[in-house]
Amino acid sequence: MTEAIDALSNKILTPQGDGYYADVAQLVADEGLIKAQLQQELNKLNAANIPVDIDFKQGIKVLGL
């Protein structure tokens, strides 16, 4: 999993950092698709109220200050 995340990060962040924004936009348009099988699995998670994203809350109110 770590290798896959590193590879994808390099595939997106390196060209973006080098200023090739159009290339990154094209990559996301071409490969950033949610296919039917993944959508079915995401629907199952949603129906079961299982979070699929991390919602990091921070700030003064969270700290009680």
Structure in words:
The chain is mainly alpha-helical and 65 residues long. It has one domain. Helix 1 runs antiparallel to helix 2. It is flat, with a radius of gyration of 17 Å.
Question: How do the helices and strands line up, and which of them pair or pack?
Answer:
Elements: H1 2-17, H2 21-31, H3 36-47, H4 60-63
Helix pairs in contact: 1-2
Q: How is this structure best summarized?
A:
The chain is mainly alpha-helical and 65 residues long. The protein is built from 4 helices and no strands. The termini are far apart.
Question: Poorly predicted ranges (pLDDT <50, ≥5 residues)?
Answer: none
The geometry reads as flat
The share of residues in extended strands comes to: under 5%
Average of the residue pLDDT scores:
89
**What Rg do the Cα atoms give?**
17 Å
**Total number of β-strand segments?**
0
Compressed to H and E, one letter per element, the order equals: HHHH
Q: What class, by secondary structure content?
A: mainly alpha
* Cα distance spanning the termini: 38 Å
- Total of helices: 4
Number of domains: 1
The helicity comes to 55-70%
Q: Main sheet?
A: none
Give descriptors for this structure:
mainly alpha; flat
